[in-house]
Amino acid sequence: MAHELANRERKRSEKQSAVAELSPAKDNNSKKTKRNAKVTDELEEATDEPIQDFTTGDDGIEGATGYDSDGSTSSQDQDGDQAGTEAPEAPSSSTADTRVHTGKLLLPPKGEELRQIKEASELFKSSSFKLQIDALLPNLAPKVSHTAPLERFLFALHTVLISIPSTKPLPPLEAARNLSSKDKSRSKKSFIGDSPIAVPYPHPNPTEDVKWTVEFESPKEITVVGSWANKIGVKAREGMGWGVDLAVEMPAALFQEKDVHNARFFHKRAFYLAYLASHLSSLSTMKDSPFKVHVAYESPGADARLTTLLLRPVSDGSPTDFSKLNAFVRLIPVIPPSSPLALHRLSPSHASIRASSASSTSEPIEPPPTPLYNSALLKCTTPRLHLLHTHALIQEVPSFTNALTLLRVWANQRGYNGDYIASENAKTSSVARAFLAGWAGRGPWWAALLGVLVNGEEPISDSGRKSAKRKLVARGLSSYQLFRAALDFLSRHEWSSQPVFARTKDGKHRHPPAEYQQYHDAVFVDASSSVNLLAGMPLSSLDLLRHDAKVTLDVLGDGISAIDPFAEAFLNDQRDMVTRFDVVLSVDIANAKIHNQSHKALDWGSENSFVINSVCSVLRRALTNRAKAIGVFIQPPETRPVSQANALPPPSSIIHIGLILDPANAHRLVDHGPALTDANTESDSHEVKVFRELWGEKSELRRFKDGRIQESVVWDVQSSDARAHIPAMIVKHILAQHFGIDSVNAVKGCQDEFDRIVRLPESISKLLVHPDRSQTGFKGAMAAFDTLVRDIKSLDEALPLALLNVSPVSSSLRYTSVFAPLPLPHSTVLTSPSCARYVPAMDVELQFERSARWPDDLVAIQKTKLAFFECISTALMERVPGLKATVVVGDESSASDIMDQGKLEILTPQGWAFTARIWHDREATLLERLTDSKNGLINRIQQNFEDKDTERERKKARDALEIYTRRFIHAPKHHRAIASLFHLFPAYSGTVRLVKRWLASHWLLGGHVSEEAVELLCASVFIGDGKSLVEGNSELVGRAGVPGSKEAGFARVVKFLACWKWEGGLVVPVYGSGGTSAEGGKNVEVKAGSAPGVWVISTEEDREGRMWTSKGPTPLAARRIKVLAKASWECLKALEREYYDVKTLFIHPTEDYDFLIRLVPTAVHRYYQNVNVDPSVWAGNRKYANLPAETELDTNKTVRVNFDPAKMYFEDLQRVYNGTAVFFYDPLGGTVIGGVWDPSLKEARLFRVLCGYSSIPERQITPEAKSKNKTKDMIVLGEAAILAEIRRMGEGLVASIVVRNNN
């Protein structure tokens, strides 16, 4: 990717050169040079004379734009590629070619303008993308009007720091006691304030018998470092302030060569920092102080060795009060270049912590290497070096600043920023969120990453062979191109096996590269060859970074219509765990223990950091390719007062573990270990020992059918739902095996609770579920369907026409029904209560061969279908003993004699129910003739243009054609497309089931939103732009960003519904290569129409997008879905902060309804499916479990297919009171029907005949009639009469009607 961008830039440069004479272009670097000069002046001004001069000197900025020894700027990089492209110089005004047109001077476009025009048309997917970036960048910088007080504060701070007097050398513990003492006489002698100051000594703590001392001398140099100095800071989220880093250079005389061992340097550094805190705290408490600040300690990443001092302003309106800027100043003690410390020894293999042996007679123990300790010490030398390197990149690469800004914004939106320092207001608002482990203090790495792309890497030798060089990117790339090049690098780089060594000035490595690879998981050595910037970074966090880069590149490159690429890359908060990860587990590590690893804890700086990184490492080994990425999130450490010595523990011992699953490998049942061979016996195999140490007792030796003998781990699961829990089971086992964490009480997840949402209660499933589970569920339903097809096709001799095809069109046969289908044989009916006797029928369509014997009359065709059904039912019942087949007519409430209304209900001996319809293609032609006003047949019917019967007949034909098209044309295609998604995406089925359950529990499914519309909505989350379906590539199907679990898919759909502007419609290319191409469907312009249905969901076969949404949701229902989705989304996000029962997401609020119709639970045949079911309802008066309940409604033991009285009652209410009230109901066992009156009918209006609703008179006196003593008869909605009718209609089903006063 980077090479392609470089070639594209070279071609663009050649085109610009060709138009140089006609395109007077301005030097690209002129503005940047002026800006860099201004930055240098500001740095020089802010730091004053005692601070390092950035314009002259041996290590200054001047001459640093190239790496030549003479300081000149190199025109080519070290690989021979062009360093960048420059626009030609602008010609003089006397030779400039100008043209006169309508009195105005018109100049040809300049080279830079030509480049921008071409980029906008080719590089960006939309013309607005570049404009959005240009508008974003200026808003990320601090306000200039607020920086003046900060500059004055820095001047004052500089004066204070260099004037602090020195102290005499004291032993470390005695010096600490002096600082913490409140004795005023001692404080005056030591120039210490009244407040006690604690010295943040890191482990191992100094003892009383140490021979070395600590002391303080005023700093020799104070330098503004970091992003603020180079003007590359980025506004962070959640109230985080601007960080201004000051490198305080400690005098070299304070240190000795051996201070690198046993944390002696860090102890001296801690005392130096504490003395600064003491002086600044004392100064802030004085009256007439030049500045007042809050002083606090901060330990990035909970590493006490790198503790810094934070200064926050006191809002007092003084000239140095920079509180409006929302910034803080961080004091970082650093090592001077001339220090006597033996820094050259701090290689990754060097042991710097040398604990004395417990006994003098014991043999000396070789201390283990301390690579992280060494890196922490070397970090104290790098702030100035990183400042100079970044400044050189800004000069060399014109777009570096903007590219780095885009990269940092992208990273912040995804949580790759562990330096959480909240403002005072932010702290009180509890906005701190968990951040990704390993990213604390990694700010310099992002600039170094872009530097590697531009300048290249140092080659390393691997067994005598040099590593391959990576192509460099051109320095003339735009900021967006450089940003994409960085994402491309991150998406491809394998950090575990590909170390990165940034190019240095002398081309040499300070330490052997092999040592970095041996003692560090990830390696990225900076351009000074001083420190590994990724030391201590878990590989799991880098895997997540690679995954996020892939997802962003897919969004930026695919041009998915449903996603705004700019918002998705830079604006939207991508840190929400429920949508980012497929499995999220909450783990309490308060009691986590790692035995015999104390030396490693010292190397990490804290035991908590060691435990968290060990968790990351072991989980990555255990999950292998089951997970694409693992994210471990911890609570941000809080700053602590200067009276607190030790770093505060995290606010909570809870960490969150997120898994992004690989659907192809995540749910396998066996993990294979090393194989045993003759040469590799069980006793001496190192791999076997490592495997058994990882898995513990779970590992076992197994012989497989092909003769292999391997160590293996087998996961025993009983169902497909339980199989989806295998990754979580692995995490729980590993945490218990290696860290002693209780997998039951200390590890919590929500998978089990979401499973219970789409599962029948245990008490009722014992009555209904067959003991042989292979005969139930989706597999059982598919087997029953296959058996039915064979039985029907065996009736060819008994049927007048041959059966060509039997097509399923049921959600139960495409794995998307809320509950797994269950058979209900007659034996089960005898013992089941009335509220658990519903038998859903699975729809199928029969297609016979074409024949001229079919009549051409629509009414006759319907009669012929009934004859077919009678013939099939008779033959089936004769062929299959125990099978029952019934012909049903008139299921549609508004059915006519030309509408398809006949069907065949089939109940198999095993209890499976089917509903069969006949598809005859001749019907469509005849119906289209009736609906076509230009057809001769219509003209013959329309003998009288004013005849109302003609329009009535045409409406019947239109209704019949609409039902025919939906039922026989689109339904089978939709079924095949959705069924294929189940096989492509393992999480799709569960996602649809959860979303349907959520909509049903909120009284919207069926009555307002069709099941097909829900399936298409969920499909949009998985297929994106549909390219994966078109190309049929399994890798594309498993691409980054596709949900790997039903929980993640459900969360994404809810988030989509909460943000979806349904007025613009949605395109879902669900058919892939079938029918019209996905590209054609994607380019359809859709607009939401008027009532009743306002959703527009377009597919390749339904360009208008109204096939499944023409009847709903209405504007009222659509707005209610959005409100409910927003509330549910907030609850889902709260799972990151606290654990709660997810069932609350499916409990519907009833405060907004005008009236509630409460039903009798025992009369609701699907009550056992209720989301908040009460098992005592079906327990009834049973004395024994195997006896039927004794209730008045429990007298009929006949199995009635699709018989749901509550749903039929709800549909009757919708039909009868259409236009008067809107009804809402949960079709999955709901016991309450909510109603909302039409608000326009509540207003009084004049009486008229056939007004369309029940009304009562209301006498009102208008102002005009009042003067004439006249009244006017008005009518209002008769609510009481309507409710009485509703109660009468539901006699025996309605328990009560509750009227709410919502005025």
TrEMBL record:
Main location: nucleus
A molecular function (GO) term: RNA binding
Record's compositionally biased regions (Low complexity): 64-85
Region (Disordered) location: 1-112, 177-196
Domain Nrap protein as annotated: residue spans: 244-395, 399-572, 578-739, 772-982, 985-1147, 1150-1297
GO terms under cellular component: CURI complex; small-subunit processome; UTP-C complex
Subcellular locations according to the entry: Nucleus, Nucleolus
RNA-binding among keywords: yes
PANTHER family linked to this entry: NUCLEOLAR PROTEIN 6, NUCLEOLAR RNA-ASSOCIATED PROTEIN
Family membership: Belongs to the NRAP family.
Name by which UniProt lists this protein: Nrap protein
Taxonomic source organism: Rickenella mellea
